[in-house]
Design brief:
This protein is mainly beta. It is about 10% helix and about 30% strand. It is built from three helices and 17 strands. The strands form four sheets. A seven-stranded mixed β-barrel has the order 9-16-13-14-11-10-17. A four-stranded antiparallel β-sheet has the order 1-8-3-6, covered by helices on one side. A hairpin with a 7-residue loop joins strand 13 and strand 14. The mean pLDDT is about 95.
Length: about 250
């Protein structure tokens, strides 16, 4: 998202569109310059192939089609000037759990645009990070690591998990060996942070992403460093996941 905005000369906090797996189609009522980045995908303008990852001009009335991803999960569509929706509690995205923020987009919605900058901040081409083929997540144990058997801690940091198809913006769910608990009691709901690794009753770790709840009642065995979460959000279902202490 940041790179797409920089390529257009937008402010760092300019709103963009995020698509998940399947893409979207847009028709501007005036000529606009866009960048489609993030997860690689085919891009067309009125059916003609267009460039991915660099600024593209879309004439008034033409259809920009952002196709399904060829790798990764989330693509980003930035428009010169940004998408000028009003923030709610400091955010322009929809919170899936609370229902706060702008509603998720539907067919036929009309979006206001801001005023484009005079010149982009970067040259037309820039390197994009590739979606991961394997995910390594650095983990700090705690605050509830003592709820788990020592064998479970060894399993967590030695076994290979895979990204579950049930993952979303709330959490990256994993498939793999269960983590056995030594405490069978219930935990009162407590605060959750970005990157918290919560272990539900099935024993398979869930890594909390940006739409995570503010509280939760399952034990948190550790926390993944925030710097590793951007690549986690691009890990497609089936991607191998390893947790490392660090």
């Amino acid at each position: 998202m940041n790179l797409a905005n920089r390529l257009l000369g937008n402010a760092p906090d300019a709103a963009v569109l995020e698509t998940t797996l399947t893409g979207c189609a847009l028709r501007p009522d005036h000529g606009v310059t866009v960048v489609v980045g993030g997860a690689p995908c085919p891009v067309t303008v009125d059916g003609r192939p267009a460039a991915w990852g660099v600024p593209v001009r879309v004439p008034a009335g033409a259809v920009l089609n952002v196709g399904a991803v060829t790798s990764g999960v989330r693509s980003y569509v930035a428009v010169a000037g940004g998408i000028a929706v009003e923030p709610v509690l400091g955010s322009r995205s929809a919170d899936l759990l609370s229902g706060l923020g702008p509603a998720p987009l539907r067919d036929g919605d009309v979006l206001p645009l801001g005023t484009p900058a005079r010149q982009p901040a970067l040259p037309a081409g820039a390197p994009w990070p590739a979606p991961p083929t394997e995910l390594t997540l650095p983990l700090r144990l705690g605050p509830r690591a003592d709820w788990f058997a020592s064998a479970a801690l060894h399993t967590l940091t030695s076994a290979t998990y895979r990204v579950s198809q049930h993952s979303n913006r709330i959490g990256l769910r994993t498939e793999g060996p269960s983590l056995a608990r030594v405490s069978a009691g219930e935990l009162p709901s407590e605060g959750m942070v970005l990157g918290a690794v919560q272990v539900p009753p099935d024993g398979r770790p869930v890594v909390f992403l940006h739409d995570h709840p503010t509280t939760g009642g399952y034990p948190v065995i550790g926390v993944v460093a925030e710097a590793a979460l951007a690549v986690a959000a691009q890990a497609a279902a089936g991607t191998p996941v390893r947790f490392t202490l660090g």
